[in-house]
Design brief:
The complex is a heterodimer of chains A (413) and B (179). Helix content of chain A is 77%, strand content 0%. Chain A is an all-alpha fold and 413 residues long. The longest helix of chain A has 30 residues, at 45-74. Chain A is globular, with a radius of gyration of 21 Å. The two termini of chain A are 40 Å apart. The model of chain A has no long low-confidence stretch (mean pLDDT 88). By secondary structure, chain B is of the alpha/beta class. Chain B has one domain (2-51, 58-144): HUPs (Rossmann fold), CATH 3.40.50. Chain B is built from five helices and five strands; from the N terminus they run E-H-E-H-H-E-H-E-H-E. Chain B has a five-stranded parallel sheet with strand order 3-2-1-4-5, sandwiched between helices. In chain B, helix 1 (12-22) links the parallel strand 1 (2-6) and strand 2. In chain B, helix 1 packs parallel to helix 3, helix 2 (38-48) runs antiparallel to helix 3 (60-83) and helix 4 runs parallel beside helix 5. The two termini of chain B are 40 Å apart. Classes of the chains: A mainly alpha (413), B alpha/beta (179). The interface between A and B is large, with 59 and 45 residues.
């Protein structure tokens, strides 16, 4: 009974998060669902509290990163990146190389949300300015928002959730994920150059006069200091979320003083409704896993950190992420992967982060989402994007897992 | 006489120049641009994947669509300016190659540029889109090189330099084909 109730509620929460009935924030459905899970005894209140205690700090960390990204945009970082992308004439191949570099870096430091929301229009405008075809570059962003999000705990919410469970320090996480990150990005690059070669040969327009880039040095400095702060706090045994908070506070102080931003905009960037949604989702997922799903997955979840076990873990994680989206996938798989140690957790993250490139929206929700689009009289041709994902995902997944395995051998879990 | 000139980012100046040089003075020249819609859709899709953190005002899809429409307008204006004579412009939405074939219905000439590797002669100089249009165009086609015509030898005829494979012992002889 408890099993059916929790599974039904999880389905309702996930579907509502895609459809967003009446434009409601996701938390409006997820919050009451979490309350029902606890009230019906599907999980006991202590467990729900424990889950909240684990997820709470993660959410605070995420809020700081979201604010940080929004403030760097307000200060002109993304405008400067756009001007650099459009600088100088040259074949579209060069634009693609720059787009890869910028997208991998922005995703790693400011999270995939920044790449999807803030970088996409900038890259499109740069391509238009150069007279280049936009499709390869926009597809690249869409892919790198996922496969470029392996490097740091802050690059993806999935990483943040799993980070604490690995027991790794911030720099150790980054050291172990550096090679997989590079391997995934390089694999994507090679495939993109090949698949889109006819779009990338066309000459671009010669530039009139290049605008000065106008690097916002203060923002770059604060970001660099925040990154250093992640390392220092982590080594000192302090939660690195404080470094993110300090960086966000410094930028906020500057933005408020110069009138670039308002307290309300900062509050909106933190996205309180989303934070409640994640908390509620974690409780609902715990209701499902505690009532049979964990035991069922235990049977298929490989154990150990041999290359084959890591590959199987990543593939399983990619599969689950494609069914239910990677955020709930991590909540479901994390306790199981954690039992095999940090190597297995990192392999799971490779799967949940790269896997979503198989489909437009990163999960079966693509089907639902298409229906929503069609109701608005829009149509998306998902064939080409899906074919691209079918090529890049297995290759990038394999390359990243082999790189992780090698890193674990050299650096140690 | 109706001359359709397919305007594509990057390769369009060569098509416009060809239209200016080849179209008779009384021809009606139509500059055609097709917006695929893939970029806004991919932007929208990536945003839809951010589970739990979508708000309508942050969706990059509409902004990208807006930028795309503006850049298509600019492109057609620039093309009309380069052509330097009276012409019509047309903007279509959909799969580029299919829209071009549809637009060429009833036209007397379709001008398009090669969209593949334009640094050497050969089949790779046609990308999938221009290949489709060349194969399916319902009217005469003028296919131009986007930049200067690449130098280089035409490959030797099939069979040159090596012996043809022996004919099969049984069954009909193999049809002549390209190697």
């Amino acid at each position: 009974m408890a099993e059916a109730v929790s599974a039904g509620l999880l389905a309702v929460v996930l579907i509502a998060a895609v459809v967003r009935p009446w434009g409601w924030p996701e938390a409006v459905i997820a919050g009451p669902a979490a309350v029902i899970v606890v009230a019906t005894g599907a999980i006991d209140p202590h467990q729900a509290l424990g889950q909240a205690r684990r997820i709470g700090p993660v959410i605070g960390f995420l809020a700081a990163v979201l604010i940080l990204a929004q403030l760097t945009d307000d200060e002109g970082l993304f405008r400067a990146l756009g001007r650099w992308l459009a600088m100088g004439a040259g074949p579209p191949r060069r634009l693609l190389t720059r787009v890869f570099a910028v997208a991998a870096a922005v995703t790693a430091v400011l999270s995939l949300d920044a790449t999807v929301v803030l970088l996409t229009p900038v890259v499109f405008a740069a391509a238009a300015r150069l007279g280049a075809r936009a499709k390869p570059h926009i597809y690249a962003l869409s892919h790198l928002a996922n496969s470029g999000s392996l490097l740091l705990p802050v690059s993806n919410l999935t990483n943040l959730i799993a980070f604490a469970a690995t027991g790794l320090s911030f720099p150790r996480f980054a050291a172990l994920m550096a090679l997989p990150w590079l391997a995934a990005v390089a694999t994507e690059y090679v495939v993109f150059r090949r698949i889109f070669r006819s779009d990338l040969y066309a000459p671009t327009r010669s530039q009139p006069a290049a605008d000065p880039i106008g690097v916002p040095w203060l923002v770059v400095t604060i970001l660099a200091a925040t990154l250093a702060g992640f390392v220092v706090t982590s080594l000192a045994g302090i939660n690195p979320a404080w470094a993110a908070a300090a960086g966000a506070a410094a930028l906020a102080a500057r933005g408020l003083a110069s009138g670039q931003t308002k307290p309300r905009a900062i509050w909106r960037a933190a996205d309180g409704a989303f934070l409640i949604f994640v908390l509620a989702l974690a409780v609902v997922v715990a209701g499902v896993t505690d009532n049979g799903l964990a035991a069922a997955l235990q049977r298929v979840m490989p154990s150990g950190t041999s290359l084959w076990a890591l590959l199987a873990t990543a593939a399983l994680a990619a599969g689950v992420a494609n069914v239910i989206n990677n955020l709930p996938a991590v909540l479901v798989l994390l306790p199981l992967a954690a039992a095999s140690g940090p190597g297995a957790v990192l392999a799971m993250l490779i799967g949940t982060n790269i896997g979503p490139n198989l489909t437009y929206t990163g999960s079966l929700a693509t089907l639902l989402w298409r229906r929503v689009l069609r109701e608005h009289g829009e149509e998306a041709d998902i064939g080409e994007f899906t074919r691209l994902g079918l090529i890049t995902v297995p290759l990038a997944l394999a390359a990243a897992v082999v790189a992780l395995w090698a890193g674990l051998r050299v650096i140690g879990g | 006489m109706i001359v359709i000139t397919w305007i594509v980012e990057g390769t369009w100046p060569a098509c416009v120049d060809a239209a200016r040089a080849m179209a008779p003075a009384d021809a009606e020249i139509v500059l055609l641009h097709v917006s695929g819609g893939e970029a806004p859709a991919a932007a929208r899709g990536a945003y839809a994947g951010l589970m739990g953190r979508r708000r309508p005002d942050r969706d990059p899809g509409p902004r990208v669509a807006e930028l795309g429409a503006a850049s298509a307008r600019e492109l057609l204006e620039a093309a009309a300016g380069r052509l330097g004579r009276l012409c019509a412009t047309a903007e279509r939405q959909g799969r580029a190659e299919r829209e071009v074939v549809a637009a060429a219905q009833g036209a007397d000439l379709l001008i398009l540029a090669r969209d593949g590797d334009d640094t050497r002669l050969g089949p790779r100089s046609l990308g999938p889109a221009s290949r489709f249009v060349v194969d399916h165009a319902p009217c005469p086609v003028l296919l131009v090189w986007p930049r200067e015509v690449p130098a280089g030898p035409v490959p030797p005829p099939p069979g040159h330099g090596h012996r043809p494979p022996p004919p099969p012992r049984h069954g009909p002889p193999a049809p002549p084909g390209r190697h």
